[in-house]
Write a structure and sequence with these properties.
The chain has 76 residues and is mainly alpha-helical. The protein has one domain (3-72). The protein contains three helices and no strands. The radius of gyration is 16 Å and the shape is elongated.
Length: 76
C-alpha cells in the first residue's frame, strides 16, 4: 500500500487517526480564513503562527501513524 492508500485506510478504520485528520483540516480552514484577509493585525499574525505550528504537529503525528502502519504491515 502506498502512503495515500494507508492514509485512506486509517481514516476509515482508526478513530484517532480520523480525529487527527479532521483537526488538520480544521487548522487548514482557519489558516485559509486568516490568509484571505486583506490585512491582518499583530494578534492575527500571532494566531496564524500558532495555527501553523499546531497543524504541523498534527501532520507529524499522522505521518508517524502512517509509518508505523506501513512498517507493521510490510510485505516481505
Amino acid at each position: 500500500m502506498d502512503e495515500v492508500q494507508v492514509k485512506e485506510y486509517l481514516i476509515e478504520n482508526d478513530q484517532e487517526f480520523r480525529q487527527l485528520a479532521q483537526q488538520h483540516q480544521d487548522y487548514e480552514r482557519q489558516l485559509q480564513e486568516l490568509q484571505s484577509k486583506t490585512y491582518i493585525n499583530e494578534q492575527e499574525q500571532f494566531q496564524e503562527t500558532v495555527i501553523k505550528k499546531k497543524k504541523l504537529a498534527v501532520k507529524d503525528q499522522m505521518q508517524l501513524r502512517i509509518y508505523r502502519y506501513r512498517t507493521e504491515h510490510a510485505v516481505g
